[in-house]
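Need tokens for this chain, all 378 residues.
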Amino acid sequence: MLAAVAPPAARVTRPDVRLTDFYTQKIAQLQQQYDALGTQLQGLQGSEAAANAQAAAVQEQVAATQSQVQQVQAQIDQLNLELAQTAEAIQVDTANLAGEKAQLTKVMVVIYTAGGTGVVSGLVQSQSIAEFMEKLGSATAVSKQFRQLIAQVQADQQRLTLLEQSQQGNLNQAGAAESHLEALEATLQGQESQLKAEAASLGSQAASLLDQRQSLLSQIATVKAQQAAAAAAAAAAAAAAAAAAAAAAAAAQGHGGGGACGDVLCPFAFGDIPDSFPWGQCTWYVASLREVTWWGNADEWFGNAQAQGYSTGQTPKVGAIVVWGSGNGYSYYGHVAYVVAVDGPSDFYVDEANYAEIPGQIDMRQVTTLSDVEGFIY
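Here are the structure tokens for all 378 residues:
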């Protein structure tokens, strides 16, 4: 091709082959995501542990409440037994009282109506006033004893009634306590279920984050492998260029050139493949660095390579040939260069010749845009 007409670029020192920033940045981004998920995972695991601890504490409260319910139920059973016994005793005393009253009535009737004449008959039949008074006193004593017995039965009955009322009150209180404890138990069981469900949900989220972190680790490993492959390819390209330059220098010495071509690169070719492009042009230099089986000016390389089945694309890769179209700062015939390092999708380094309009002079340049780039030949 003819000399490029683009403004001369500042010559830059050829950098050592290094791992590209593109991969380093990608790894850093993945690592940042991995660390962020780790922070989230710690928070979820802490929340899950707290929920489980609360559920365990509530479970203990449920067990304690159930124990209290059992105790109250035992108390209720005892109170029901005592209340039944008291009711039975009241029934016995009531029957006894009725019997005593009936007997007292009969005795009094017998005493006062014996012989059918009542007190007068008793007085008449008595041999003396003393005998009558003795009979009358005897009847009074019997009546008094029966009345005392009736009073005692009534007192027992009243005592038992009060006891029954007290026992019924205690039973009501115990029943209320049992209802309260059962309601508390139901509430605590609901809290326990909710906390367990929350802990299970948090555990599921934590497991999902673990899977995501594992996926990120796999992605990081993949990018590191790509980075290593890119570094190896860049190192191989640099070694090939160095070997080609050394071979050219040795050939120049063999022809008496003393190994020097001034400020430009001595002619050389890629391996055993003849380089038929004009010496010193961009096409000649790239064809000296890697195999080129097509012909044409620089702006024709992309289409010619595609026609021969070469893989092409729009992404810079180490070892690829980058092709610029004609004009827009480049020669009328376009420009080609050899990619030696990649920092990103539109940021890469090229090794090239004749960029500064000096045939045979090579330089390395950083390209930070894909503007006017036709594509890359892989």
